[in-house]
Amino acid sequence: LRPLSFIWSKLSVCGQLGHRLEQLALVFSTQKAESPAQLMRKANVLVSVLLDVALGLALLSWLHGKDRIGQLAEALVPVADHVAEALQHLLQWLMGAPAGLKMNRALDQVLGRFFLYHLHLWISYVHLLSPFIEHILWHVGLSACLGLTVALSTLSDIIALLTFHIYCFYVYGARLYCLKICGLSSLWRLFRGKKWNVLRQRVDSCSYDLDQLFIGTLLFTVLLFLLPTTALYYLVFTLLRLLVVAVQGLIHLLVDLVNSLPLYSLGLRLCRPYRLAA
């Protein structure tokens, strides 16, 4: 059950389906409303669900008209190739002298080839799925029957899957950068005659001999000169990750807007404000 609960917590469409079940449970609840506010809330939820389903059916009708799903499927692989080509050019730029910066040549080549290999794996994965993309999109389009918010949540999950390589690049860069920073912090404490006490979770004084200081100096110098190369990769992939997160954030904002907009109350405010006053 743990893998299923983990997947349920990570997929946006699962969260939206859970929210939709809560909305339906509230609408079809046999418990009598104890106050006008509860009755108004139930009416708002009902109108929101009806509008959501209506918009979803309109989207489904648009997708299945004029074979738009087939057109989307045909355009998806070229777009993925174009994105991969842009990332490849970006990695090749980073492997050179980006913005005139002099990077560590050996580490730069290792990181660049590592990320290029992962990019090649992602492109192979997309081309492997290309014969089934139209069928996948057709079944995904059916989720619009449950409402526009479910379709948007599914779109957010598809974006997450299609940009999984960018997420991997970000995680690799972040972990490597954090390791460098942690190593430099530990070695800096060594120069100051300090050490981190794991048991007491504090910094204590410590005396080091000459050999330890010499090795620490060498390691600190190596990590310090390798840090700019790692930081540049981390910065670039963080910006790419933020771009993806921003797109998903806009989709989630639209979903939250449809879920929480009190349409029934707004309609009463515009058409019959005296009922709200009562």
Automatic annotation (TrEMBL):
At the top level of its lineage, which domain of life is listed? Eukaryota
List GO terms (cellular component aspect).
endoplasmic reticulum; membrane
Instruction: Write the record's keywords in alphabetical order, separated by commas.
Output: Membrane, Transmembrane, Transmembrane helix
Signal sequence interval, chain numbering: none
Q: Which residues cross the membrane?
A: 45-63, 110-129, 136-163, 212-236, 242-266
GO term, biological process aspect, one = GPI anchor biosynthetic process
The record, for PANTHER family, names: PHOSPHATIDYLINOSITOL N-ACETYLGLUCOSAMINYLTRANSFERASE SUBUNIT Q (PTHR21329:SF3), PHOSPHATIDYLINOSITOL N-ACETYLGLUCOSAMINYLTRANSFERASE SUBUNIT Q-RELATED (PTHR21329)
Record-given protein name = Phosphatidylinositol glycan, class Q
Source species: Mustela putorius furo
